[in-house]
Amino acid sequence: MRKLAAGNWKMNGTQAALAEVSALAQANPAPGCDVLLCPPATLIARMADLARGTAIRVGGQDCHAKASGAHTGDISAEMLVDSGASHVILGHSERRTDHGETDAQVHAKAVAAIKAGLTAIICIGETEAERDAGRTLDVVGTQLHGSVPADATAAHLVIAYEPVWAIGTGRTPTLAEIADVHAFLRARLTARIGAQAANVPLLYGGSVKPSNATEIFAIPHVDGALVGGASLKAADFGAIIAALSAA
Ligand SMILES: O=C(CO)COP(=O)(O)O
């Protein structure tokens, strides 16, 4: 399958930050993997304009489950498509924490996103307390089962495993721990959506940097990364793209 380097800008970036997109496109005219940037909603349309004709694709960081209506402050999947987005991140741990999003809500958003033609990047991951209690596989298995629509097709689905305690902390699981979780997720995804699970990219996320990307991308069933802080600068994200292309 095609590998995916995805950047999540979170709540970072104003128009000035769009210079990084042009720099990234120039430095990586023909990357050996898919490249996606998910900026704040305010930048999606401008970024999509800038990225047209390059290898960079643009995604949202959330969408509402409904197509339109009285939902102040929300954005629908159709609106993301209209802005030039091809993907949307759903169920990121920051949304699960800040906005109380449940697996059922993430599932409903994923159904809406896929119906609108987007690829849903569904995020799952355990907290540090859950890992310490030996519940990692339980937790991510339950999240996966509850969040992923059973009829999702490989063309419109990406799973991102992001241990909550590894996000923005500079800490990561061991390579063996990531390997265990990704092998488990491939099996659970096969139970959920069938044989095409083999073609769904499984991304690792949480403190991915140029310095650790190569060893993480060598792990079986790691098909790319969802990158936060290191996706904000073209030089750092470009190095991660190069590591994935070489994997
Ligand atoms: O949450 C993340 C991506 O969605 C990971 O963030 P960091 O790469 O900054 O740890």
UniProtKB/TrEMBL annotation:
Q: What class of enzyme is it?
A: isomerase
What is an example of a Pfam family matching this protein? TIM
Q: What is its main location?
A: cytoplasm
**Domain of life where this protein originates:** Bacteria
EC number(s): the record gives 5.3.1.1
A molecular function (GO) term: triose-phosphate isomerase activity
Name the residues that bind substrate.
8-10, 168, 207, 228-229
- Keyword Isomerase assigned to the entry: answer is yes
Q: In which pathway does it act?
A: Carbohydrate degradation; glycolysis; D-glyceraldehyde 3-phosphate from glycerone phosphate: step 1/1; Carbohydrate metabolism; erythritol degradation; Carbohydrate biosynthesis; gluconeogenesis
Q: Which reaction does it catalyse?
A: L-erythrulose 1-phosphate = D-erythrulose 4-phosphate; D-glyceraldehyde 3-phosphate = dihydroxyacetone phosphate
Record's keyword annotation contains Ribosomal protein: no
Active site, per annotation: 92 (electrophile), 162 (proton acceptor)
Keywords assigned by UniProt, alphabetized: Cytoplasm, Gluconeogenesis, Glycolysis, Isomerase
Q: What does this protein do?
A: Involved in the gluconeogenesis. Catalyzes stereospecifically the conversion of dihydroxyacetone phosphate (DHAP) to D-glyceraldehyde-3-phosphate (G3P).
Q: Which NCBIfam families match?
A: tim
Instruction: Tell me the PANTHER family matching this sequence.
Output: TRIOSEPHOSPHATE ISOMERASE
Q: What is this protein called?
A: Triosephosphate isomerase
Gene for this chain:
tpiA
